[in-house]
């Protein structure tokens, strides 16, 4: 049977959610001094870039962005790189910085756990906060986001797909339900 798909966020909803998150980051941290956004590959990088761009527009200050590839830190795949491998992070120094990790979907929390491991191997951030576009629940680790675009209660049989212009044909979030 073909899966059933529903759009739960369109381009406008995504744009508004990212603008709100940018304001929330500024309000919670009273600005963005010593702050760096780090996107988790793949779509987390584009989200980090978009939020950083809004922060620059609102505050008129620089907002550095880095990229994290956590492939070698996952606990469900064979570790193929040594810890602290330079290829894991492309970013300015994170030592004593406030790091805002960005990802598209938060589910079990294992990706974020791996991202925190990768970061801490490379320095000691002053603080790590987490921004996600969609929190779909079903956490397997004690991880919670500081900034959420949309909370989407899901069944484990459903799948959330985030599509972004930078790599997909359009901007949207869809929920996919396998028909019985
Ligand atoms: O909380 P978790 O259970 O770890 O799930 C969330 C992760 O799953 C997806 O990544 P995926 O591994 O599918 O790779 P992708 O980003 O390349 O799609 C998504 O982009 C998140 O990073
Ligand atoms: O539904 C899910 C679960 C994990 N990662 C996703 O991108 N979607």
Automatic annotation (TrEMBL):
Homodimer and homohexamer; in equilibrium. Also displays a weak uracil phosphoribosyltransferase activity which is not physiologically significant. Regulates transcriptional attenuation of the pyrimidine nucleotide (pyr) operon by binding in a uridine-dependent manner to specific sites on pyr mRNA. This disrupts an antiterminator hairpin in the RNA and favors formation of a downstream transcription terminator, leading to a reduced expression of downstream genes. GO terms for molecular function: RNA binding; uracil phosphoribosyltransferase activity. A motif (PRPP-binding) lies at residues 99-111. Coiled coil: none annotated. It comes from Paenibacillus flagellatus. Its EC number is 2.4.2.9. Residues 11-153 form the Phosphoribosyltransferase domain. It comes from the Bacteria. It catalyses: UMP + diphosphate = 5-phospho-alpha-D-ribose 1-diphosphate + uracil. Keywords: Glycosyltransferase, RNA-binding, Transcription, Transcription regulation, Transcription termination, Transferase. It is an enzyme of class 2 (transferase). Belongs to the purine/pyrimidine phosphoribosyltransferase family. PyrR subfamily. One of its GO terms (biological process) is DNA-templated transcription termination. NCBIfam families: PRK05205.1-4, PRK05205.1-5. Signal peptide: none annotated. Gene3D superfamilies: 3.40.50.2020. InterPro entries: PRTase-like, PRTase_dom, PyrR, PyrR_bifunctional. This is Bifunctional protein PyrR.
């Amino acid at each position: 049977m073909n899966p059933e798909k529903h759009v739960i966020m369109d381009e406008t909803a995504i744009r508004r959610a990212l603008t709100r998150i940018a304001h929330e980051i500024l309000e919670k941290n009273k600005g963005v001094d010593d702050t760096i956004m780090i996107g988790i590959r793949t779509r987390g990088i584009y989200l980090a870039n978009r939020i950083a761009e809004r922060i620059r527009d609102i505050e008129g200050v620089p907002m550095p962005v880095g990229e994290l590839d956590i492939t070698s830190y996952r606990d469900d795949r064979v570790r193929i790189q040594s810890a602290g491998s330079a290829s894991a992070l492309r970013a300015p120094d994170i030592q004593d910085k406030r790091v805002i990790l960005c990802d598209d979907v938060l589910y079990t929390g294992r990706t974020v756990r791996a991202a925190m491991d990768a970061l801490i191997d490379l320095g000691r951030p002053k603080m790590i906060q987490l921004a996600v576009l969609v929190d779909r629940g079903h956490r397997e680790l004690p991880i919670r986001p500081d900034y959420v675009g949309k909370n989407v209660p899901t069944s484990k049989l459903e799948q959330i797909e985030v599509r972004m212009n930078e790599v997909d044909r359009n901007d949207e979030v869809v929920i996919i339900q396998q028909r019985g």
